[in-house]
Amino acid sequence: MLRLIVLLLFSCCTIAVLIAQPKKITNKLIDYSDLKKAGTGFLIEFEYDKKNPAEVADKASFSINGISSADVGLIEVKNDKGIPLKPGSHATDKLPYSITKNILVLDKGTSSHKFTITYSPTGGTAIDHDLEIKATEKSTEKPITGATITTEINSYIAKANEYIRQNEIKEDRKRNIYMKGNQVYIFLSEDGSILKSDLPTTAIQEYVYHFIVISCKNCKHTSKLKLEVEGSYNPSYLNFVLNEDKELQSEKENNKHDPPIYEAIHYGSYGPFTDSFKVKVSKIDVEDQKKDQVIFERSVKIAKLYHVSISTGLFNTTLKNPQNIEIADRIQSGVAMGDSTLIADDPKMRGVITIMATYYPGGRSFLFPPTGNIFDPSRIGVLVGAQLNDNLQENFFLGLSSDFARGGSFAIGIHCGRRNFITGGDYSDFNYGTDKFIGELKVKKEWDIGIFFGAVIDARVALQLFKGIGGGDN
Q1: Where are the chain's structural domains?
Q2: What is the pLDDT of residues 76-111, one digit of tens each?
Q3: How many alpha carbons lie under 13 Å from residue 325 in its C-beta half-sphere?
């Protein structure tokens, strides 16, 4: 019995719900016969384009179907504020009501509006009916496709290229970075994507970093980008964290028909650094801070900068120092001349092996090839050293070097050293083995100056070369 009662109650509720469901209006017509029935609700449901008022007015209008000249009942439509809507011109069989855009306040998304339709028969009781209009705005967003993404990226890159041209920034193809002097420029889109070139995996201490964000100027933004840079600079031995955040605000909301306008936002300059530094870019939801999202994060190592290097020099010098000088018979073209000459080892320009110390005023990293021409300050070093032999104290070298490769440089300078000379006359231009010598041979030493030139190889590079020649690390 109890089960039967529950079943009956459930059936009654179901019937009541079905009865309470509004009658959906099709073809923009309401049957006059339905107006005479109490409790009948009506529903007009449609999608609309907010930019097309004619479409809205058309889809929100309706007519009463089935009214004859004999019907004298008054039909009235009021909005939710009780203001009656005026019907348009009508024939005897229709009474059209137009609910225009001025009456419908259609917001983005789905809008629901309530109206009341009243049928007042002559001498009878007025019957009110609920009328609901559900209007849903059509989606105007285009589906994201590969072509759409490519177009947006190209727009970002085009703006970045414009910024590069206007600020005379140059591309360093060897290092795959964009620079102006010691300034490195990193370009990001507003969603954190890398444009043009990434941060270098290894950098040098003199770099200062500029972060440029390309953003849509006339688009609606609900977030901002936060840039955090953490690093240190020695010898100050101070660790620091720098951060900058800017809202991606627009001048006005794009009406979706205007083409997007892109701008370059400068997020500040950071550096120089030593050892390493970290960069993190986060996207912050202005309305909900919990939705922060890290969209870009990098760690960059700084190549050690050397100001002094120890190297080996292979030089040719104009300071003559003949060795083992002896008197010998003078012979020319195989014919003995009947007199004497002098013979010696190394009587002319000679080669020397030296140990050198090079000072780089601007510092030098051996992880990177030199840049600029041979006279670029970043290549130039001041070197001093001595000949690598048993008499280090007898030959000194002072000059300038210019790097031609990592760890290798050309050098030129002054050679000051002690040399052998013959007493008893001027033998500075004596041609050993050819010129005639008369007198007693006496050899002494003196200090003199010459010019040297040659190549310098950094000891670290030379060590690696010798290891390679030896066939391993042993």
Answers
A1: 17-137, 146-302, 306-470
A2: 777 766 677 666 544 333 445 555 433 444 445 566
A3: 24
